[in-house]
Amino acid sequence: MLNTLKPAKVSILIFSQTMGAAESAVAEKFCNLNADQLEAVRGNIKKVTVQDGLSEHDFQKLLPHWGSFASVAFANLGRKKGLKKDRLPVSTFVAQVNLLEGIASDQAEALTNLFDAKWQEAIVACVCSLLQLPSAESAALLAFLQKDKSSNLTNMITSNRLLGELVHLPFKHLLSSKKSIMPKLSGNTTLLTPVAQLAIRSHIPVEFRDKWQLLFSSNQHGSSFSQMAQRVDGQGPCLLIIRSTKGHVFGLFASHGFVSGPTYTGDSLSFLFSLSPSIGIHEATGFCKKYCYLNQQQETLPNGMGIGGSSDDNWPLFLSEDYGSGIACANSSAFEKCDLAGEKHFEIHTLEVWRVGPPPAVKQTEKSILDKDPQAQALLELAGKKMHSTAYRDPAPLLSDGEDD
Question: Region annotation Disordered: residue ranges (predicted)?
């Protein structure tokens, strides 16, 4: 049996070319950073100082998107290390970068070292500045992070998927990382704020996070259930977002999308979410196997689109085929308790549906008789016979990848 090779830890004398001999003589292990990341950090430090340590002003220049928290972090690190001078060893700074790229317990240690009890406010300030989010989004993001009541910070980072991504952002530019945590939207939205996109994106499977395509918008395509159903049917994993006439914004993630018919699709990766008046993610409980449903024009079955429901009106979220109205039950066994609309029966103001991830694969259909025997087609055409069957070829796909409408 072959032995599995484990990656060696990187042990480096960093900054030996630019820092003093006393600093460069100490070997530091930064096992969470690869050689390219260490080189990127060194290059950024060289831009602000060539001395043996970092001053508070150097900190502010290195981390401009931290705002006042750069000074907070500098003072905290100096106090924890018992420094009497006004300069912080470079190795102490890089150690925090290394910790934030590590496991949850390492990340918790770094956030505590840098910001103490103000780590949530600091993360929000960094994120909003680095991603250039509107100032109004700060409060929404902070409130979402503060909802988590985990017993300690390590557990919080482990359980809160959005926080697990955000902790990598404070030093992102120093590591020359170009990976975005915002999805690329093909289409215009009036319902998905930047923080809403962050929260939802962090909870859907990785392969669906980066590209979102607008399938239906009531602002663009009108208030038509049949139009929406046609544009959504068979398009794969998607998001449904609603603004009610009372101002609540909420929706669902359908892990396998919607397929028109009398059966349910999807699995426990599906979830509900609320976006306004506050952001919350409400995951499946596993008690119910009935997830995503789409049907219309039936005499005995429910006609509409919904998730986690039954034959009665006890749906956590359901849209009527008549369009304009829906049901949102707060006490459903299918998902965590949530009051999405603030009322059981709501009226729709705006509705959007977004496909997430790549478009569905085109199914191979049986060839037309015209394609099977082109010679026979040619002979019939020479004889002056009209080809009636050409009108019955499969239609072109409703939406192609990247289409904005």
Answer: 386-405
